[in-house]
Amino acid sequence: MPDHPQITLRESGERAVLVPDAYQSGALILEVDGTPQSHVFVDAPDDLFFEYIRRIGHVIDLFRPAGEPITAVHLGGGALTLPRYVAVTRPGSRQQVLERHADLIDFVREHLPLPAGASIRFRYGDARDTLAKLPAGLRGTVDLVVLDIFAGARTPAHVTSREFFSEVAALLAPDGVIVINVADGPGLSFARAQVATLASVLPEVVVIAEAQVLKGRRFGNLVLVGSRSHDLLDLLPRLLAGGPHPAQAMSGGEVTAFAASAPIVTDATAVPSPSPNKNIFSVKR
What does pTM read for this prediction? Predict the structure, then answer.
């Protein structure tokens, strides 16, 4: 793809490229070694396209009064789709982005500048190592933490454990939320273990996904939302109504039953998320 902006990432040797979306005018897709990582509407950062990103966007819209600034931490940067979204839908928000690849962020910002007035601090390095170095004053004050961490098409093992989720949860304000993108396929053994692990750290957990994914019939993304606040459950009808459709959600006893036979993941037992089938990301251009 010689005509598209691209870079070889120094640390990993992966190739990152920005390609036009063949089906969405004015949109670019960030691919890293052939895996779509982010989708951005260049002139409309408040427009979200990927299914799971739209579901996360609904959480961002609903968990605080509309337009109210928030404090957010994003683990995993990509093309900064959600930090852009927060910046324009909740002006005045303070955000931190933790990203492994500084050169990826430089590349993205060169070709996709951030919205005017966005207050975003970037910190570079492994997500878990960098999380431990965040200012102490953030602990207990963060409204939203988004975990969307991938190395290629897989989530690394060391950011899937109870120990890691506990470190993340320590950032949250009393009614703050953690949102996690989990990719899994038939059987959902990885996703079930992630739900069990999040539920061992936070008392309220909601799982939202396309119905066939949640039934374990095809590979896809599940959005996990965790909080200490019971207010999370009040959001569920509106989260479902917002789509994308068809949508299905679980809470309470359904979450308990979904994760009942799954082990809680620890640092000693953690494994990466499963690899998707090679043709799942194939797109005709």
Answer: 0.94
User: What's the whole-number mean pLDDT along residues 236-248?
Assistant: 87
The first and second tokens of residue 226, run together, are 């965790």
Residue 23 in domain:
no
Residue-by-residue DSSP string for 55-118: HHHHHHHHSS-TT---EEEEE--TT-HHHHHHHHHSTT-EEEEEES-HHHHHHHHHHSPPPTT-
Q: Quick check: helix, strand or coil at residue 33?
A: coil
244: DSSP letter = S
Instruction: Pick the closest to residue 176 from 136, 224, 223, 144 (CA basis).
Output: 144
Across the range 274-279, mean pLDDT stands at 74
Cα maximum dimension of the chain: 52
pLDDT-based confidence at residue 170 (cuts at 50, 70, 90): very high
Count of structural domains, the chain: 1
CATH number assigned to the domain comprising residue 242: 3.40.50.150
CA-to-CA separations, 152 to 23, 207, 225, in angstroms, rounded: 23, 24, 23
CA-to-CA distance for 159 and 31, rounded, in angstroms? Answer: 22
